[in-house]
Design goal:
Layout (H helix, E strand, L loop, with lengths): L6 H4 L3 H6 L4 E9 L4 E10 L9 H11 L2 H19 L4 E6 L1 H8 L2 H10 L7 E5 L8 H12 L4 E7 L6 H7 L3 E4 L1 H4 L6 H17 L2 E4 L5 H10 L3 E2 L17 H7 L21 H8 L5 E3 L4 H10 L5 E6 L2 E7 H8 L4 H5 L14 E3 L4 H9 L5 H4 L1 E5 L2 E6 L1 H18 L9 H13 L4 E9 L1 H8 L1 H18 L6 E6 L2 E6 L4 H15 L6 H6 L2 E4 L5 E4 L3 E9 L11 H15 L6 E5 H11 L2 H8 L4
Parallel strand pairs: 2-3, 3-4, 4-5, 5-6, 6-7, 7-8, 9-10, 12-13, 20-21
Antiparallel strand pairs: 1-2, 1-8, 10-11, 13-14, 15-17, 15-20, 16-17, 18-19
Helix pairs in contact: 4-5, 5-7, 11-12, 13-19, 17-19, 21-22, 22-23, 25-26, 25-27
Length: about 625
Amino acid sequence: MSRSPSLQSLAPSVAELIARRGLSAVFQPIVDFDGGTIVGYEGLIRGPAGTSLEAPGPLFDQAIREGLSVELEHAAARTCVAQFAKLGCEGKLFLNFSAAALAALVHTREETVAWLRRIGMPIARIVLELTEQCPIDDVPGFESVIAALRDTGAQFALDDYGTANASMNLWVRLQPDVVKIDRFFIDDIANDPLKFEAVRAMQHFAGASGARLVAEGIENEADLIVVRDMGIAFGQGYFFGRPDANAQRSVADAAREALSAGHIAVFPGATRSQTPGSPMGGVAAAKMLVNAPALPKIASNNDVLELFNRLPTLHALAVVEHDQPIALINRRSFMDRYALPYHRELFGKRPCLLFANASPVVIEKSMTVEQMAKLLASDDQRYLADGFVITDQGKYLGLGTGESLVRAVTEVRIEAARYANPLTFLPGNIPISSHIARLVERQAAFYACYVDLNHFKPFNDRYGYWQGDEVLKFGAAVLAKACDPTRDFLGHVGGDDFLILFQSDNWRERARSAMAAFNEGALRFYADEDVAAGGIHGEDRRGNPTFFGFVTMAIGCVCVKPASTPGGRYGSEEIASVAALAKHRAKQEASGFFLIDIDEGAAQLHLHEGAAMTSRGASLLA
């Protein structure tokens, strides 16, 4: 019984494919986000259909085994160019080359340019992509290779930037016309704050170097809209179109709709890195650092006295050994001892460690703010009198006082809360204001929904702040579940106040579902007897005994029109103020929900707004 031949046995050698021109090309579009036009294509090679060498991976692996890698790259490029010219496509043609293939191309550049003219393909339409396949041993020497190829009129691109051998070094040295961001950084960028920040860094450098960026690997609407709203101009990926032998002439419908979508992206925020438990301790350490000299442990008490007399504002003095702090001498305690009769004569020449605290409080510069805060709450309160030592990787850096520790931790926590709420980790007032400004600038229509919890203060008074925090975290989780993270921005203003900037079409259903889920779920935070009674007894703000119902959610919403339409002329502060007004009205409604148009709300503010309401709305932007 005869066996059918395997795919491997059907596959010719790479040498045969090159000789008989057995390669074919496919083209993937590169799209300009402004209008969704195709500005060029990347040419990709394929081996004979139905064989093991059809895919480019096995094809180039076989070329390596045959020692024909450069020859295959050149043949692939000629195949792509010839087919591209035959199709009559417009725009640029991007061709992949290794460093070795580009170096070899220099020697045939004149005949290559002549061939391009004969087939009607201007060299100015060619973009040479340096792939990441192998490292470049002589980067300075390779600069002359790129310069020689550019002299022909071709452009140069750095491919797969951010991985393997596509490095900042090459970007700086070779100064590419185009940099293609590797798909690793683009895939799921809508949900990955670190990828977002990495691409933003590339964007800043591209602006400085004059390179244009192409985002590779775009495969869904969410990633496309984030990249679009970042300001990157060009993209490539399956969402626009797959590689096609006929080179598709228009962008896929889904991608075209996404590019023209009226909503703006909600950028992924790395809020956790800005909370008090994060490495912002370096900021706190800088705020409280006192640059002060230290003495070696062999110094005498007379040396300590001389230094304190020379520096009258110095509260303490560190004793070090091999740059590491081993003791701390408090100024007041030391000077009080020396004021006693005969102490200077008796102890002046004795070692300074005699009156030193041999176990001082030490704060490492990299200590987190949360760790510093725990120190404030600990039983060890020596830092209040003696101060403490600040170190950098164990080595003496300077001193700090108890007062400066309290002030620095407080200031950093307040500043961090402006960016991210320390309880819920949701964006704080600065990111909220920034997103409102982006919505207004992009002339997007949206609903600003101010969320507040009814009867939260009486609950806090009855059950304590710890249980109150649990209710706030529950509320944040409910609101987050109600939002589409790619369209709707959720922020925590402070206390029991939240703000949602809705762009989802079904925003009303999302808001009402959040209210229902919270109102039902909040009952679990009450004692059984309070649930049976329908609420709790407490005091109102004037101290009068009052019965309060359960904690419930109220949402006041403002319909904000695009700036291009009548009434769409409001700024962030006015939108925030009207949202606060809508929240106030929502708390008076039995349903807990209230919707107002921005024009109507602004008119009411101008007519009836008091100072208290003005400051309440403005606090969103503080």
